[in-house]
Amino acid sequence: MQHCKFGTTDYNVSPMGLGCLSMSGMYGPGDDTESIATLHRAFELGINFLDTSASYGNGHNHQLIGKAIKGRREKVVIHSKSGSPRGPDATGLRGGSAPEYLIKTCEESLERLGIDCLDIFCMSRVDPTVPIEESVGGMAKLVEQGKTRYLGLSEASATTIRRAQKVHPIVSLQIEYSLWSRDPEDGNIQACREFRMGLMAYSPLGRGFLTGAVKDVNTLEEDDGRRKNPRFKPDNFQKNLELLAKVEALAGEKRVTVAQLSLAWLLAQGPDIFPIPSSKSRKHLEENLQASDIQLSREDLARLDAMFAPGAIAGDRTRDMNRVNV
Q1: Both ends of the chain: CA-CA distance in Å?
Q2: Whole-number Å distance between alpha carbons of 22 and 220
Q3: Residues 7-12: what's their mean pLDDT?
Q4: Given a cut of 70, is residue 87 above it in pLDDT?
Q5: How many CB atoms lie within 10 A of CB 3?
Q6: What does the alpha-carbon distance between residue 303 and residue 165 come to, in Å, rounded to a whole number?
Q7: The dihedral of CA 223, 128, 201, 24: what is its sign?
Q8: Which backbone phi and psi does 13 adopt, to 5 degrees?
Q9: In the prediction, which pLDDT does 100 show?
Q10: Comparing C-alpha atoms, which of 206, 172, 175, 204 is closest to residue 326?
Q11: Residue 113 confidence (pLDDT) above 90
């Protein structure tokens, strides 16, 4: 696998990373043994870029990764988000941008991972009540103390990115980006390129929608987070299935899966776009990686752009749009 430079860092990473969210129960129960086997298989296949968060499984994800990277820490680049304070109903609360919270969370993350320094520490959400300059200033102390090498932001607007860069170099932006979530094309990508940042595309398969595996929301587990997502609500979901049918037809022509086609589209958006599909099984990991071998023509890309034109998807991409792209 050909690795490439990640933003302004000195890391060479795989063009596709591995999101570890699903290993900690987000989309149905996880299996620690299979998850660790999946991580090891990813390393064997050349993936050296992991995305995790302090909030995934309330620390479970970090402990899992800590076990998987023993003996190979120097070969793996870990991007870890701060997560957000959680209320009794598991919804994210304000306060996740406070310097005190960020510093405390980074230190707890290091302990759970069993490492001394994060490669990239990322603030999960921007709290509009806390100036970004204050948040980044607090995170910069972690760099000074050797607890992280680089800083990143998640779901930050172009304006916020530019303000943050005046305080301390920001090497990456993590934001939802896929055929069914094309918001970053409205300015985030431009801002990232202005500062030579890497853009990490999370949920590149539309929370599983672009795998084609979910055709009936009622088949999802009762505690599956997608049941609360606006795009998976019955009326919206049926409209979105009509769009999916079109991309399934193109995938059939190309003799690839819908997931592979969707990832290939993202990889074609530029070498600074790094999809981080979440996989909790070796089977899905290997299927996703095959997207790297798919060559899409200009005509293919134009067809996909037209099928999933911005605004074509029914429903907001998350329950609280006030907490994204801030």
Answers
A1: 35
A2: 14
A3: 98
A4: no
A5: 15
A6: 36
A7: negative
A8: -120, 165
A9: 96
A10: 175
A11: yes
| Residue 156 phi, psi dihedral angles, 5° rounding | -95, 140
Strands 18-19 and 77-81: unpaired
The percentage of the chain sitting over the pLDDT mark of 90, rounded to a whole number, equals 88
- For the cut 60, the answer to whether the pLDDT of residue 204 exceeds it is yes
Is 101 marked active-site?
no
Residue type, 170: I
Instruction: Give residues with Cβ within 8 angstroms of 93, minimum separation 6.
Output: 84, 85, 86, 87
What are the percentages of helix, strand and coil residues in the chain, rounded to 5? 45, 15, 40
Superfamily of domain 4-208+262-298: NADP-dependent oxidoreductase domain (3.20.20.100)
Rounded to whole angstroms, how far apart are CA atoms 280 and 216? 21
The 3-state secondary structure of the chain, one letter per residue: CCCEECCCCCCEECCCCEECHHHHCCCCCCCHHHHHHHHHHHHHCCCCEEEEECCHHHHHHHHHHHHHCCCCHHHCEEEEECCCCECCCCCECCCCCCHHHHHHHHHHHHHHHCCCCEEEEEECCCCCCCCHHHHHHHHHHHHHCCCEEEEEEECCCHHHHHHHHCCCCCCEEEEECECCECHHHHCHHHHHHHCCCEEEEECCCHHHHHHCCCCCHHHCCCCCHHHHCHHHCHHHHHHHHHHHHHHHHHHHHHCCCHHHHHHHHHHCCCCCEEECCECCCHHHHHHHHHHHHCCCCHHHHHHHHHHCCCCCCCCCCCCCHHHCCC
Which residues does 229 contact at the CB level (< 8 Å), separation at least 6?
Answer: 207, 315, 317, 318, 319
Pick the catalytic residue: 11, 27, 56, 202? 56
